[in-house]
Amino acid sequence: MGLIAAQQARLVALAPALAPVSLSMNSSAIYLGSAMGAAAGALVIADAATERLGWVAAGFGLAALFSVLFSGIGRQAKVDGGGDDGTSAASA
Predict the structure, then answer these.
(1) Hey, which end of the chain has fewer CB within 10 Å, N or C?
(2) Rg, Å, the chain Cα set
(3) pLDDT digits (tens, 9 = 90+) for 17-66
(4) 30 CB contacts (<8 Å, ≥6 apart)?
(5) Is residue 71 helix, strand or coil?
(6) Closest among 22, 21, 33, 20 to 63, alpha carbons compared
(7) Per-residue pLDDT at 66
(8) Contact call for residues 7 and 68 (beta carbons, < 8 A)
(9) Contact 18/26 with Cβ under 8 angstroms?
(10) What residues contact 79, with CB distance under 8 A and at least 6 apart?
(11) Would you kindly state where each structural domain of the chain is located, as residue ranges?
């Protein structure tokens, strides 16, 4: 949970005008992920298969990894708002 503040700072830097919306959508996604993980764990425990909890968690971890890899997050986004002339928003 220690990365949430850095993630929110990056979201604000990417689109300052949309900060309230992007931060609320980010928080909603975090809460949804937590709820889905808790529900999946409860289903596994209800099935009396506690020895499978680690495998289910690993499956969620792999799904998250693949979603990041295939989302194109490797492409660099310009955070500083720089233009084609090499100047940045900070120096303006």
Answers:
(1) N
(2) 18
(3) 999 999 999 999 999 989 998 999 999 999 878 888 889 999 999 998 99
(4) 4
(5) coil
(6) 33
(7) 92
(8) no
(9) no
(10) 10, 13, 14
(11) 29-68
Tell me which DSSP letter residue 3 carries: T
pLDDT tier at 77, thresholds 50, 70, 90:
low
Candidates 28, 27, 52; CA nearest to 40 is 52
Q: Which two tokens stand for residue 2?
A: 């220690």
Q: Are the C-beta atoms of 44 and 56 separated by less than 8 Å?
A: yes
| 12's tokens | 């604000």
Sign of the C-alpha dihedral computed for residues 77, 80, 81 and 84 taken in this order = negative
Give ∠ CA 50-51-55 in degrees, rounded to 5: 105
Look at residue 70 and tell me whether its pLDDT is greater than 90: no
Structure tokens at 31: 């809460």
Phi first, then psi: what are they for 15, rounded to 5°? -150, 80
Report pTM.
0.64
Predicted local distance difference test score (pLDDT) of residue 91: 47
The pair of three-digit structure tokens given for residue 71, joined into one six-digit string: 């989302």
